[in-house]
Amino acid sequence: MDHLAAEVFAAPYGSGLRAVCDLPAGAEVCRFEGPILRFEEIPPGEIRHALLLEDGRWLVDQGLARNANHSCAPNCRIDAQNRVVTLHAVKRHEELTLAYNIVYPGENPGQWDERWSFNCACGAKNCRGRVDGYVTPEGKDWNRR
Fold this sequence. Notes:
Elements: H1 2-5, E1 6-11, E2 14-19, E3 28-31, E4 36-37, E5 50-52, E6 58-60, E7 69-70, E8 76-78, E9 83-86, E10 97-98, E11 118-119, E12 130-131
Parallel strand pairs: 7-10
Antiparallel strand pairs: 1-2, 3-9, 4-6, 5-6, 8-9, 11-12
């Protein structure tokens, strides 16, 4: 489905991912695919393209998903099968974004690692300015329960 739903584009801040057609809510955009490694095995520079799996290992994406940028108001999320799916309808050429720090009901990502923190300039009305911990979909701080 990758080649039908999304494409990489050059954005002012690097690369991004955008819809190649109008997409309904729940549409699969692409999938995280690549080697599964322990944290210490991830090549330098690849941690920003890695997805933490439930068992503590990391999937280092080699496909389109590595180009999905963060937004504090994302239009996509990662589902249990490591697919990037739309949260709501997305228009053709709209940038496809994920919130790197949102924890959805039923998920338990473990502890936030300070190495993942970064200053955000997504421009969303609800932009946190700094991504430095997990939040709920409503934007409230998430604490491991």
